[in-house]
Amino acid sequence: MQVIILPTPNDVAQYAANSVVDVVTENTNSILGLATGSTPIALYDELVSRCRAGLLSFKNTKTFNLDEYIGISECHEQSYRAFMNRHLFNLVDINSANTYVPLADSLDPEVLARNAKAYESEIERSGGIDLQILGIGVNGHIGFNEPTSSFASRTRIKTLSKSTVEANKRFFTKGEFQPHLAITMGIGTILESRAILLMATGKGKAQAVKDMIEGPLTSMCPASVLQQHKKSIVILDEEAASLLSLKEYYLWCEEKRQQLHEGNLL
Ligand code: F6R
C-alpha cells in the first residue's frame, strides 16, 4: 500500500486528478471505477476544469460507479446517478451510454439481484477496471460494504449500517424518505481493479484511516483489505493522517520514491 500525505484536501484532489489523467491518456479505452460522496467532489471539479481546458478527454472512457440507493428513483437529486450527472458526466465529453451506475430503481428483490449480476457481467465484458476511485466511511466501509462484509463479496443488495444512514442524513431534507438499502459492488469486485486509489480528508476519517492502514486485516474495517491489493494508493490530507503511527515513515518513503523517480538512488 502506498500512503501519500499531502497538506490540504485540494492537494489530495490534484494528486488524484493527475492519476486519473494518467490512466485516461495511457489507455485507449480506459475503464474507471467511480465513487460518490463529499470526498471526490473536488476531484470531479478538477477533472471538469481540465476537460474544459482541453487537457483531458473522456471520449473513449467507460465508467462504473460503486453503488446506488434502492428506494429512490434515478431522477431523485440524491440518487448516485443524479450526483454523477451533476458533478461529472453532464460537464465533460463522456458518452453517457458509457457511464454505468448500478440499476436500483425497482422494488422487486429478484429484479435487483438480476441487475447486480448484470453489473458484474458488464464490468467483466468491458475488460475490468483500470483505476477504482474510493472514499472511506467513518466505519471503514468502501462502496457500501459495511463492517463484516465478506472480502469475497460481489455486487449485491446491501443493508446500510445505522451509522452510514446517519452520516448521509445531511443530504436529505428533514422528514424525507432516506434509503437504507443499496446495490454496491462487492469487495471481491473492487479488488479485481488493476489499481485502487482511496482518498480521505478531514479529522472525521482519521480513525478509519488508521484502522485501514495500520490495523489488522479484518472485515470489521472493510477498507483494511486494501493492504492485500497489489496496487493500492491511499491519498490523505494532514487531518485524515493525524492518527497514523508511521506518518514520518510514509512521508520519508514518498521523498525517497520521488528521488528514485529522478534517478537519484543514493
Ligand atoms: C459512495 C461510496 C462511499 C463513500 C463513503 C465516504 O459511492 O462508495 O463508500 O465513499 O461513504 O463518503 P464521504 O466522502 O461523503 O465522506
The fold-level CATH name is Rossmann fold
User: How far apart lie the N and C ends?
Assistant: 23 Å
Order of strands, widest sheet: 1-10-9-6-2-3-5
Low-confidence stretches: none
Which CATH class is shown? Answer: Alpha Beta
Indicate the overall shape. globular
Quaternary state reads single chain
The CATH architecture can be named as 3-Layer(aba) Sandwich
Mean pLDDT comes to 97
Q: What's the Cα radius of gyration?
A: 18 Å
**Tally of alpha and pi helices:** 8
Largest sheet: 7 strands, parallel
Family: Belongs to the glucosamine/galactosamine-6-phosphate isomerase family. NagB subfamily.
Active site: 67 (proton acceptor), 139 (for ring-opening step), 141 (proton acceptor), 146 (for ring-opening step)
Domain Glucosamine/galactosamine-6-phosphate isomerase: 11-232
GO molecular function: glucosamine-6-phosphate deaminase activity
